[in-house]
Design brief:
Alpha-Beta Plaits; Rossmann fold; 6-stranded mixed β-sheet; elongated
Length: 345
């Protein structure tokens, strides 16, 4: 805490969440294995991974719901086990499928949640007004929660997470079950809130994470496989310029068209498929991710060989491709590395 006070005094960026070499075992099952990461003040961190990867178990350790078997977690400098009450007060948590009291009206429920955090009457009134306005719930404020649509219930859950003005928000699948318009609205709200809160976002929707998060962690089999800004991870881990060229299957000299690329500098690999009507589609991968536009060299090689080109375009590497590669590749697979009974998403 003393170091945090020094950082605040001098305006230094704080580590609001610090997980240090955390493990979680359920009997012989190792659900989380040596996970370490930090989340800085104001950062939006996304957590990705397939079911059973250790994401939910990690979140439960961060929120203090369960203790780590080994390692430690601190929230704004407060240990989640030794100082659990104060640490939890620093968090606003929206779990997936958040439970509600359907018979309560929206404002009644939010006031009830504020009371649980010990807010005074004046503070409750102020925070309730803020949360209702920020989450666009004014028109539904007097409605019973059980009558609300899925989208509005999600807004109520987010308002409840905000009600005590926590510095950290943890959102587990916040757009689950929403329609495209509601997803866009929620995404915009999350970005707006990031100016006032450090945020940890768990989602299976990769485009949502790419557009919302400053940084992502990709989990697989209880470990972190990648950590960094989405665009940087894709560039550094997949690398290479990719070009798709669709062209006639033979050159003017009768040789196979695919051979014209063999001499291109930096070509890492090429795959060719039949595109019909006497054309082939070649996918060319070049080693340098930051090389000049390689399409000019491809077009020149095709022209010099007398090949008719029907299409020439870049193919962008995606976070989805990286996610599939990292979560499919085998890492050390000890026995009993499967999730505990009931699974872990």
């Amino acid at each position: 805490m003393f170091l945090n006070e020094i950082r605040r005094t001098f305006g230094l960026r704080l580590h609001m969440i610090h997980a240090k070499n955390i493990h979680k075992h359920f009997g012989q099952v190792r659900a989380v294995r040596g996970v370490s990461f930090e989340v800085s003040q104001g950062e939006v961190l996304g957590i990705l991974g397939p079911n059973g990867a250790g994401k939910t178990t990690t979140i439960r350790m961060i929120t203090g719901s369960i203790p780590p078997t080994h390692g430690s977690v601190s929230i704004d400098g407060l240990d989640t086990i030794n100082d659990t009450v104060r640490a939890r007060a620093r968090l606003g948590y929206l779990p997936e499928g958040a439970p509600f009291y359907p018979e309560m009206r929206v404002t009644e429920y939010l006031d009830y949640r504020a009371k649980l955090f010990g807010l005074s009457r004046a503070k409750r009134r102020s925070r309730l007004s803020y949360a209702v306005d920020r989450c666009a719930l004014s028109e539904m404020a007097r409605r019973r929660i059980g009558t609300l649509s899925k989208g509005y219930r999600q807004r109520v859950g987010l308002a409840a997470a905000l009600i005590h003005d926590p510095p950290i928000l943890i959102l587990d699948e916040p757009t689950s079950g929403l329609d495209p318009a509601q997803i866009a609205e929620t995404r915009s709200l999350i970005r707006d809130l990031s100016g006032d809160h450090t945020m940890l976002l768990v989602s299976h929707i990769l485009p949502e994470v790419e557009k919302t998060c400053d940084r992502v962690l990709i989990f697989a089999r209880g470990q972190i496989r990648a950590d960094g800004p989405p665009a940087t991870l894709v560039r550094d881990m997949l690398g290479g310029n990719r070009v798709i060229v669709e062209m006639k299957d033979t050159r003017s000299d009768g040789k196979p068209s695919r051979t014209i690329f063999d001499a291109l500098p930096g070509l890492e690999n090429a795959t060719h498929v039949d595109a019909g009507d006497g054309f082939i589609a070649s996918r060319l991968v070049f080693m340098q991710a930051d090389a000049p536009d390689i399409r000019e060299a491809v077009a020149r090689a095709a022209s010099e060989a007398g090949v008719l080109v029907r299409e020439l375009r870049y193919e962008l590497a995606t976070l989805e491709e990286l996610y599939i590669r990292l979560t499919s590749d085998p890492i050390d697979k000890p026995e009993n590395s499967k999730p505990a009974e009931g699974g872990d998403s």
